[in-house]
Amino acid sequence: MQPKVRIHRKGGFYYISLFARTKDGIQLDEIKSSGECAEVISESATELILSLIRPDDEWCIITTPKRRHITEYHFATDICQKIAKGVKIKFYESAMQCLNRTRINPEFYLLRPIKEQRVILFDDICTTGSTLTAAYDLLKDRKQVICIVGINNH
């Protein structure tokens, strides 16, 4: 993975990616199990967020739903915990759940109320954008949603 901050358009919204996958670098499975990679991504995300917003109690961060890593280390959760601490905003762990197992058109729902009207939506790796799109669709009625992706994989 190499640092490469980019803005992407997906349907009716934009997202910011922080890193790009390299062809001959560390495999994604290795990255997703690495606390060191989580630290690098969270530092980059924290720096970006602090340059974009003035954190207050109207902001929170959530991640896209856990779908495969229910009981073990969860990369995106680790990153969001670090970001929340660095930015000093609330992190809602496991805030969303997937209704189906499909990767093409996932359907998500909120597991708990999120009172904050300004949300940072974080996804660790974006390949097709369908996960991010489904999560964004669930939150788009908020005052503000900033979508951030750790690694752009397409």
Give a topology summary.
Layout lengths: L1 E9 L2 E8 L7 H5 L2 H18 L6 E5 L11 H13 L2 E3 L3 E3 L9 E3 L7 E9 L3 H10 L4 E9 L2
Parallel strand pairs: 2-8, 3-4, 3-7, 7-8
Antiparallel strand pairs: 1-2, 5-6
Structural notes for this entry:
By secondary structure, the chain is an alpha/beta fold. 30% of the residues lie in helices and 32% in strands. The chain is built from four helices and eight strands; from the N terminus they run E-E-H-H-E-H-E-E-E-E-H-E. The chain is globular. The mean pLDDT is 91.
Helix count? 4
Which topology does CATH recognise? Rossmann fold
Proportion in β-strands: 25-35%
Specify the biggest β-sheet. Answer: 6 strands, mixed
Query: Taking strands numbered 1, 2, ... along the chain, how are they ordered across the largest sheet?
Result: 1-2-8-7-3-4
Structural class: alpha/beta
Indicate the mean pLDDT.
91
> What is the annotated CATH architecture?
3-Layer(aba) Sandwich
Distance between the termini: 12 Å
Q: What is the helical fraction, as a range of percent? A: 25-40%
